[in-house]
Amino acid sequence: MIRKCKDHGYFRGEECPDCGEEGRYVLDDDREERLGRFVSGALRHFPDDVGIEMDPQGWVDLDQLCEVMKRRYKWGTMERLVSLVESDKKGRYEIDDGYIRARYGHSVDVDLISDYPANELDYLYYGVSQEEADMLLDNGIYPIRQCYVHLSTLFDKAMEAASVHTDNPVIIEVDANAAQQDGVDIVTVNDDIVLARGIPPEYLTVVEDE
């Protein structure tokens, strides 16, 4: 459920987390999920298939995306599209000067390295299964289905992400400071996620706990 507080903007849930007000209804759970799947597909995976143009940095004209959306969903409006972006706690998307893009999760090739600030944290984290850990420590971390490796800024976030796929996550610590000094590009896309084209094995170690 997405609602809008007159003082604090769009939020998800029954009441505004900042003031407790109920706010105005914008989007129910079912439509939020359907719209979310469409936006994710259009901005991350198949822009050509839905008929939108994407620039090399992943930006898409907001009006164009909205028009395509309206043809699929008669209830689709610009406000509902914007509310999906602005209420998203995971910071999946961003809107700037009439354009929209996904911050991460792309399977289509986009250049985000030149467009986001360099990571400033000394260490980053990556959660994997027990079976994967040894292979990554030997060979490094490189993307498989996506364009970028997605690293977590916090140990707990890496554990949370890995727990979706395995019951016994292994958390690999990335010496980001050393990697960047040696020329590995690592960029920050939001408070939780950092991207790289790949991390060679010499910067990786297993950590037992935070």
Automatic annotation (TrEMBL):
Removes the 2'-phosphate from RNA via an intermediate in which the phosphate is ADP-ribosylated by NAD followed by a presumed transesterification to release the RNA and generate ADP-ribose 1''-2''-cyclic phosphate (APPR>P). May function as an ADP-ribosylase. InterPro entries: Ptrans_KptA/Tpt1, RNA_2'-PTrans_C, RNA_2'-PTrans_KptA, RNA_2'-PTrans_N. Keywords: NAD, Transferase. One of its GO terms (biological process) is tRNA splicing, via endonucleolytic cleavage and ligation. It comes from Methanolobus profundi. Gene3D superfamilies: 3.20.170.30, RNA 2'-phosphotransferase, Tpt1/KptA family, N-terminal domain. This is Probable RNA 2'-phosphotransferase. It comes from the Archaea. NCBIfam families: PRK00819.1-5 (NF002015).
